[in-house]
Design a protein that fits this description.
The chain is mainly beta. The chain contains 1 helix and 7 strands. It has one domain. It has a 7-stranded antiparallel beta sheet with strand order 1-7-6-5-4-3-2, with no helix packed on it.
C-alpha cells in the first residue's frame, strides 16, 4: 500500500456516531462519512491515540488537542483521521473531523 497525504475535512453522516465513545468524553467516531463527494463506511478501528499540546496562552498546562483514529473502510482502504477538540478558526467551526492520510493498494 502507498500512503497519500490528504489533510482535508470530512463530513460525518448524521446518526452514525459511536455513542459509547461519547459516554467516555471522547468524540464519537462516525460510522460513515463523506469525503470528496463519496461516502465511506468504517468497518474496523485499527488504532486510536491522543495528541496533547501546551497551553496557547503560555501557561504550564497541557491540553488534549486531537483524537486520532486509524481505520479500515468497508472497501478495504486504510485511513488515518482525527477530531480536533477546538476548531482552528471561527470560519472552520464545523470542520472538526479531518482525513489525514489514506493508504491505497498499489
Amino acid at each position: 500500500m502507498s500512503e497519500e497525504f490528504v489533510s482535508e475535512p470530512i463530513e460525518p453522516v448524521a446518526g452514525t456516531f459511536d455513542t459509547a465513545g461519547m459516554t467516555r468524553g471522547e468524540p464519537g467516531l462516525p460510522g460513515r462519512f463523506v469525503w470528496r463527494q463519496q461516502e465511506y463506511a468504517v468497518a474496523e478501528v485499527l488504532r486510536t491515540w491522543k495528541e496533547s499540546g501546551p497551553c496557547k496562552s503560555g501557561g504550564p498546562e497541557q491540553y488534549l488537542r486531537k483524537h486520532w483514529f486509524k481505520i479500515r473502510t468497508d472497501n478495504g482502504l486504510e485511513m488515518t483521521m482525527y477530531f480536533e477538540r477546538q476548531a482552528r478558526t471561527k470560519r472552520q467551526a464545523k470542520n472538526r473531523w479531518w482525513l489525514y492520510t489514506i493508504n491505497k493498494p498499489q
